[in-house]
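step: validate -> pass
step: tokenize input -> pass
step: predict -> running
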Amino acid sequence: MSNPFCHVELNTNDVKKAKDFYGKLFDWKLEDIPSPGGGYTMIGVGEGTGGGLMKNPIPGAPSFWLSYVAVDDIEAATKKAKSLGAQVMKDVTPVMDYGWLSIITDPTGACLGLWKPKKA
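step: predict -> pass
step: emit ->
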């Protein structure tokens, strides 16, 4: 598959409650890592697509899950999405030493993250 889903992220209004709930519901490994602007918890699921959870950065918005798709060229993919009618909610942004993300809203109103990992 050329552009697989690669990460799923919970933006939550109650990090402690979410970690408690998902830690008990599933056999996930939750690992807190330092990040700018607050904490981030990596979600290890064993096989399959992992993810993370963090404090919701959108004031007044409900908690939500956001899926990310892997791309080879994040600038080109973000530009192409915009040319096809998407709105760019967050332009290409570096994420520490991990890679880059952008967040779009497709023409139907659905949000999607694009992810370009740094090469090792």
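step: describe -> Residues 88 and 118 are 22 Å apart (CA to CA).
step: cleanup -> pass
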